[in-house]
């Protein structure tokens, strides 16, 4: 198996969900019409939807080199100096769940931006229905290019009157890994929040260092939110990451939800666990406030 098609630990956790009945889930047609991806499995009928009342929200194009990267943003209407939070998506593309998360953050007072950093592949990831077809695309994204794309998002936010002195990043699944990587890269970052982001990578020449290997280089405090029942990211691995950060005197906290599987915050999936998701969101908001991202 080549590195392009390797099942990374975040993906392993996704693929072993308990069997469930179709009751309580949308039809595939309805899910696609609502803007959700199908690669993660059936979409729950009882999804969280956040309105745009009091917000300015929509699509944007962000200049990266000679190209333009699509993004979705949401911010408080009329607030020109809102703190900036990057939303790092899962492997499924810029679909409705990630857009909703940006609106949730905007309701907390942030200028939240979700960039589609896989755009160069020329494929709409939200339309891909099989994880095996997504892997060659997302696993061939070089970390160096990813970091540069995120820096471009920050520069764009600054040009749109966002307060980049109050910069945060939050990510889910593969985006959780992105949070760890960016926390080691970006000295301007105030705080990061990683929802079940993998900390140990498979061999991939495009990813020179895993989050665990980057522990000595962390420049911002990170909150790690993990599921004790995640079949891809064992608790022992999370504990190793915690120990590596402590050893290097880095600021980080971890909360493990004992019965929660991978993807417990993803309210559109069968993996959603409301109690864990609600608590984790409160922890995330408190973390951003503690480190001066949100006021």
Automatic annotation (TrEMBL):
InterPro entries: AB_hydrolase_fold, Dienelactn_hydro, Dienelactone_hydrolase-like, TAT_signal. GO terms for molecular function: hydrolase activity. It holds the Pfam family DLH. Transmembrane segments: none annotated. It comes from the Bacteria. Residues 69-291 form the Dienelactone hydrolase domain. This is Carboxymethylenebutenolidase.
